[in-house]
Amino acid sequence: RKEVEQDPGPFNVPEGATVAFNCTYSNSASQSFFWYRQDCRKEPKLLMSVYSSGNEDGRFTAQLNRASQYISLLIRDSKLSDSATYLCVVNKAGGTSYGKLTFGQGTILTVHP
Amino acid sequence: DGGITQSPKYLFRKEGQNVTLSCEQNLNHDAMYWYRQDPGQGLRLIYYSQIVNDFQKGDIAEGYSVSREKKESFPLTVTSAQKNPTAFYLCASSSLTGLYTEAFFGQGTRLTVV
User: Fold this and answer.
1) A27, A86, A106, B2: least buried by Cβ within 10 Å?
2) Got the DSSP string for chain B?
3) Does any CB of chain A come closer than 8 Å to the CB of residue B49?
């Protein structure tokens, strides 16, 4: 089983749609969780961190379920500019723990007019 | 400005040659990472380092070597033993303690074997 698994998609949605991505992780010692966005031929950039209580940033909502070991990303009112690959990232680091940063394989999102 | 810098942006290598990719950060991060990305694929971990003079193999370390002589620098050598080196190589760094352990990436190096 891979350490971090995502549905690769692709997801093709119209503008204005709501889309959700899920990601599962296998290491229960994982401490920190993130969603990154990667545009074509560019480096990944942090979209948002995922906190235990869940967090929201504008149209984006991230949730963490430690018991089931998955995180999710919800995008509301999709824009054309949201088209990208979304990467789930898990880090064992945090507090005083050394860790290893592991990426999922990414989920491709295409938003069309 | 604080950040992470990779060089060169594009690199061409002849078969049988070793090449070294540079990665420097001035974010005072303890951890540094090297990833490889192939077209349409996710990021695969090559090597990572949590402290100076120490590093661990990732999932695809064969044919690669690294060093961590300084906190700021984590160069990656792609050796002739790496059978399919053409790829997009990404370096990242992160803090290991506290709340903010997200990774910051360099702009990447595109390596092509000719």
Assistant:
1) B2
2) ---EEEE-SEEEE-TT--EEEEEEE-S--SEEEEEEE-TT--EEEEEEEEETTEEEE-SS-TTEEE--SBTTB--EEE-TT-S---EEEEEEEE--SBS---EEE---EEEEE-
3) no
